[in-house]
């Protein structure tokens, strides 16, 4: 394993590890597993809501 990781210029890790913001190998039934993704979605949704409200206000003002 060490030879392959050296050849591929990567490292051997353990479980759980993070991939695309989610913990791989963690218990999917635990809320703590999903909390980082949910927080990211909350931030994105809040940005979209604010943008939409600003656009509506801007267009109605004209």
Automatic annotation (TrEMBL):
Domain of life of the source: Eukaryota
GO molecular function: RNA-directed DNA polymerase activity
Nucleotidyltransferase in keyword set: yes
UniProt entry keywords in alphabetical sequence: Nucleotidyltransferase, RNA-directed DNA polymerase, Transferase
Name of the protein: Non-LTR retroelement reverse transcriptase-like related
């Amino acid at each position: 394993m060490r030879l392959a990781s050296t050849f591929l210029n990567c490292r051997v890790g353990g479980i759980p590890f993070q991939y695309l913001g989610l913990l791989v190998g963690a218990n999917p039934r635990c809320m703590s597993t999903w909390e980082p993704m949910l927080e990211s979605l909350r931030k994105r949704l809040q940005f979209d809501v604010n943008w939409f409200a600003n656009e509506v206000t801007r267009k109605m003002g004209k």
